[in-house]
Every structure is written in C-alpha cells, then in structure tokens.
C-alpha cells in the first residue's frame, strides 16, 4: 500500500477550498493508501497568530478532518508540534538548502507582500515542509497547484541528501486532482480562496452558519454579464462558482451550463447556496458532536504515537548517515 502524507495549517477557519482541494481527497485516499494527515501548527506560526486563536483553530481543524470523514481507524491524524522530529528535521533541511531556492518560492513572495515585516520562518517554510514529507518516506503528497513548487523542492532536497549521504529518503510524487484543485476567492477571481484572508466575505468557511453562507454567495463578485458559462479566462468569478457548484452537487460543469441557460446569475447563485448548505450542514453537525464528546484528544494522541513511530525511525537513520553521535 502506498503511503500518503498531507497537512493543513491551523492558520484560520477552514474554507470550502480546503475541503474541495484537500479534505475530500483525504477521505477517498484513506481507503486505498496508508495515510498520515497532519494539522501543521508549526507552519501556522510563520505568520503571527494570537495564542488563544491558534489553540482553538488547531482543535477546530482537527475536528473538521474527522467531521469530513477522515477515519481515525484508517488514517493517522496528528498535530505537527506533537511530533518534535518535524522541527528537528526541518532545521537539518534548511542546512541542505540554498537561499536562492527559498527565494524563488511564489508562496513566499505572495505571503511576504502581505506582511509589514517578513519573518524568517516564512522564508524557511519549505525546509519544514520537506521535513514533514520526508520523515514518513511518503510515496504521494496530495497538493493543490499552489504547493507544487514546494513539493518540487522537497524532491530536490531528498535527492541531494541521498547523493551526499547515501540512499535513505524516498522521492515523493505529487497527487493532484484533475479539476477544482484551486478554488478562488469570492471577491476576486484571480486570488486563491484563503482562510487567512482578513475579509471573511472572500471565503466560504466550513463552519459558517447557513444564513451566512447564503449571504456570502449572494454577494459574491460576478462579471457584468448574465450567462452562466464556464470560461475561467474571461469569466473567472462565475467559473469559480460553477466549480464549487459542481463539487457540491451531482451536476457536471456542462450540465450546470445547460440548467441555467438564459436564467441569469440570480437563480444560479440561489441554488448554489442551497447545495453548499446541504454539503456543509452534516459536516457541521458531526463537528459539534466531536467537539463536545471529548474524543478529539484520544484520536490525536493515537495519531501522534503512530506518526512518531515512523518519524523517529527516519530521523535516526538520517542523523546516523550525517554523522551525528546518536543518543547513548
Ligand atoms: N482555495 C483553495 N483551493 C483548493 N485547495 C486549497 N487548499 C487551500 N486553499 C485552497 C488546499 O488545502 C490544503 C491545506 O492548505 P494550507 O492550509 O496548508 O495552506 P494554504 O494552501 O496556504 O491554504 P490557505 O487556506 O490559503 O491558508 P493560508 O491562508 O493560511 O495560507 C493544501 O492541500 C491546499 O492546496
């Protein structure tokens, strides 16, 4: 069985982008792969986080994994900071990396543009991400388009390590879903929908109340036309809404075009809102049950133990190959 590693940052409220681009795939993958899914809180702190919010967000992200259908008996779900090997190998990876490699990362360029002062952690983020993946000798890493570049760097670092110190690390492959890999912001079709966007109307949060969801979708930006046509270049906003529609219903993009031919944006948005509500409401219900049952800490403890077993063994091998004196 091939091994999969992926994670989501606890840097805000999970969006429908995280659901479509990550969680939905996790649920499918766990039936056919050995899965390690992480809540990457060490990555979240590469931009400032308020302590009480970080704690709540980390627990909320974890609970949403399970509420979305990730099964603790099939997948190992863990909080990144519960497995200290991540931070340790992250450091080692930065010592194998070159400044130019990190400087080229478009996510660093995008995120640093939004900060008044740029933290070093934001810059060295790809080193930690490489560690996250390589610790588990993952075969596959489900990533959205935006993370492809980081995975490419991870592969380079693994190859570099193997050449310099001897074969040890597996070279991971990307697993990219064919469509809908990138859900765009509700207020700007050229921007990715992001949980850390300061404008809550730019994203559909998985835990938004139904009426909030309806309002956000009604107010979402569209072009001045009225044809519900899939044309990401000329009509990026309506095309994005159609992608969300398609993921939250049984209709294909073609069928959506046929369904709303000549009807305009109003009825389309109204129906879209109901499909989104119908998709998220059962998840919200399960989320509430998980949060109030006290099961979360049990699942996360079990996940951290399973993850640490694998991660500590890889780290030990890496350190041995590099010439570290191992603990006596
Ligand atoms: N808009 C999106 N469309 C499709 N997939 C998305 N993902 C995130 N946003 C979208 C996928 O979710 C996984 C986890 O992402 P992350 O939280 O680790 O980092 P991110 O990609 O930077 O996500 P955000 O929401 O934009 O977070 P912030 O705002 O904190 O940077 C990844 O698989 C990602 O592709």
Automatic annotation (TrEMBL):
EC number: 6.1.1.2
Keyword check for Ion transport: no
Keyword Nucleotide-binding carried by entry: yes
One GO term of the biological process aspect: tryptophanyl-tRNA aminoacylation
MF-aspect GO terms: ATP binding; tryptophan-tRNA ligase activity
Subcellular location(s) per record: Cytoplasm
Motif ('KMSKS' region): 192-196
Assembly and oligomerization: Homodimer.
Family: Belongs to the class-I aminoacyl-tRNA synthetase family.
The protein's name in its UniProt record: Tryptophan--tRNA ligase
Organism: Chengkuizengella marina
């Amino acid at each position: 069985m091939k091994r999969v590693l992926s994670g989501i940052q606890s840097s805000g409220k999970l969006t429908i982008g995280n659901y479509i681009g990550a969680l939905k795939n996790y649920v499918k993958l766990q039936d056919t792969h050995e899965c390690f899914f992480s809540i990457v809180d060490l990555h979240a702190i590469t931009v400032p986080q308020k302590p009480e919010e970080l704690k709540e967000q980390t627990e909320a992200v974890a609970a949403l994994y399970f509420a979305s259908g990730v099964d603790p008996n099939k997948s190992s779900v863990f909080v990144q900071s519960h497995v200290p090997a991540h931070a340790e190998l992250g450091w080692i990876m930065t010592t194998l990396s070159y400044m130019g490699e990190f400087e080229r990362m478009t996510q660093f360029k995008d995120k640093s543009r939004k900060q008044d002062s740029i933290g070093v952690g934001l810059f060295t983020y790809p080193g930690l991400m490489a560690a996250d993946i390589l610790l588990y000798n993952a075969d596959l890493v489900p990533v959205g388009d935006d993370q492809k570049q980081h995975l490419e760097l991870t592969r380079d670092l693994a190859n570099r390590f193997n050449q310099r110190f001897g074969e040890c690390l597996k070279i991971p492959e990307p697993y990219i879903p064919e469509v809908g890999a990138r859900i765009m912001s509700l207020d700007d079709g050229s921007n990715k929908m992001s949980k850390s966007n300061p404008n809550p109307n730019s994203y559909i949060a998985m835990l938004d109340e139904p009426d909030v969801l309806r309002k956000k979708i009604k107010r979402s930006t569209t072009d001045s036309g009225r044809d519900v046509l899939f044309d990401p270049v000329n009509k990026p906003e309506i095309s994005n809404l159609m992608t969300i529609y398609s993921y939250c219903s049984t209709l294909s993009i073609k069928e959506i075009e046929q369904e709303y031919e000549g009807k305009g944006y109003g009825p389309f948005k109204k129906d879209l809102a109901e499909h989104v509500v119908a998709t998220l409401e059962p998840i919200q219900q399960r989320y509430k049950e998980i949060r109030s049952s006290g099961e979360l800490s049990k699942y996360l403890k079990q996940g951290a133990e399973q993850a640490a077993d694998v991660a500590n063994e890889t780290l030990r091998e890496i350190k041995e190959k590099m010439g570290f004196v191992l603990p006596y």
